[in-house]
Design brief:
This protein is an alpha/beta fold. It has six helices and twelve strands. The strands form two sheets. Strands 6, 7, 8, 9, 10, 11 and 12 form a seven-stranded parallel beta sheet that branches. A five-stranded mixed beta sheet has the order 1-3-4-5-2.
Length: about 240
């Protein structure tokens, strides 16, 4: 069944029998890309855990309307609350990492600017990138069947991020670390922050600063993985350890 995200802020208190309006971008996708028409059925979700069987009441590429039906109950969230803190990589790699992290079940993604990042974004470009990444998050969430839309944080400096207090357990992927991820002792229900470096790896001061701030260094075995592989491999491994796979 096709899925579509509706804006919870524009449709507060949505429930069976409610009519929800789609913005122009989502309306265009529904009508022009998916080629759906009035009377057809979709799964509508609000990104906050609520999803419904819905009928397309108005199929307009600029302003579609859905009539919400019965709630759909399905538990597909990860047993771990993982935040992927990913240092910037080049465009295609960063896009791919964000997309696959959402499919794998992360709760949040925070893009970071590190001293060895090959990409530099000023405020205007960072705003445009954030909007682009938000669309990737939405698309991946819709495709993978999730009801919760992962949060996407603003781009921030790595040194600033690691100094922020957090109740979550914090892990940093560090090739050569004495502890392997499989020995980190992760349990279902844990809240985790997973820090992954850029293409050239962390600078020495950055890594030591993260460790001093409370990040536990862990490695992913004897091989050195690329930035677009490391974070995703770690997420998949953590999910397996927690019984998600």
């Amino acid at each position: 069944m096709p899925r579509v995200l509706f804006d919870a802020e524009r449709s507060p208190g949505a429930a069976p029998g409610s009519r929800v309006e789609l913005d122009e971008r989502r309306s265009h996708h529904l009508v022009r890309v998916l080629r759906l028409r009035a009377g057809e059925v979709v799964e509508a979700y609000d990104g906050l855990g609520n999803r419904f069987r819905a009928e397309i009441a108005v199929a307009d590429p600029k302003h579609s309307v859905l009539l919400l039906g019965e709630r759909v109950s399905r538990d597909d969230e990860s047993p771990l609350a993982i935040t992927l803190a990913q240092c910037l990589s080049t465009a295609e790699r960063m896009d791919w990492t964000i997309e696959k992290a959402v499919e794998l079940g992360v709760r949040a993604i925070v893009p970071l600017d590190s001293e060895r990042s090959q990409v530099r974004l000023d405020a205007a470009r960072a705003a445009r990138k954030h909007e682009h990444w938000q669309r990737i998050v939405e698309s991946a969430c819709t495709q993978s069947g999730r009801a919760w839309l992962p949060a996407l944080g603003p781009l921030r400096p790595l040194r600033e991020f690691v100094s922020l207090p957090s109740p979550a357990r914090r892990l940093v992927l560090a090739p050569g670390a004495p502890i392997r991820l499989s020995a980190a002792g992760v349990r279902p229900g844990a809240e985790l922050i997973l820090l992954a470096g850029p293409e050239s790896g962390f600078g020495e001061a950055e890594l030591s600063g993260a460790i001093s701030a409370g990040f536990e260094p862990v490695c992913l075995g004897p091989r050195i993985l690329r930035t677009e592989t490391a974070g995703l491999a770690a997420i998949a491994a953590l999910q397996a350890l927690a019984g998600d796979f």
